[in-house]
Amino acid sequence: MQLDVKKTIEWLQLANTKIQEKKDYLTSLDQPIGDGDHGINMARGFKEVEAKISGKDYKDISELLKDVAMTLMAKVGGASGPLFGTAFLKLSTSIKGEATIDAKQFASALDAAVTGLKQRGKAEEGEKTMIDMWAPITKLFQQEEGITADKVVDTAKMALEKTKEMKATKGRAAYFKEKSVGHQDPGAASSYYIFEALAEIWKGDSKA
Are 15 and 197 in contact (CB under 8 A)? Predict the structure, then answer.
């Protein structure tokens, strides 16, 4: 995998398209175990992200991802704004000055993002949060060999399905305790579309 500024913009534009399309679905996931506004918040935030980054001339990926992070923090409501913003900010700082990154560099950046999410959300894997999507994807990239776009999607699907059987112990969903079991985590679901978009951009790249 090779990501440059152009491919990163395409990734985030496609992520926005997917989140806009799934806005109502993401909100429906949030209604039983949250505030019922996750899809609305994420759609608003990613619409602003696309407006911010489209047509702007970035010298490196880090600068681009920093704009994404700041926009998500400012425009996505609730806990999701700071969390998604933190993830993208950690991605940004981990690849400072890089015009192009490969899968190994992306793995290191993802690892920093997961660490940031754990610190910001005071959560660990298995607590039914977006970490349960970001951590498995990170581990996949850390394998360094045999990573494909299809494996990214397969890993993301399995991770999302696993959140159904978890009992939430962090965030708004934790108030529902055992009743949270059986529901997908909304933050993991919106993260799924972000990584699905990445896989599709990667797959469509003739240099992949």
Answer: yes
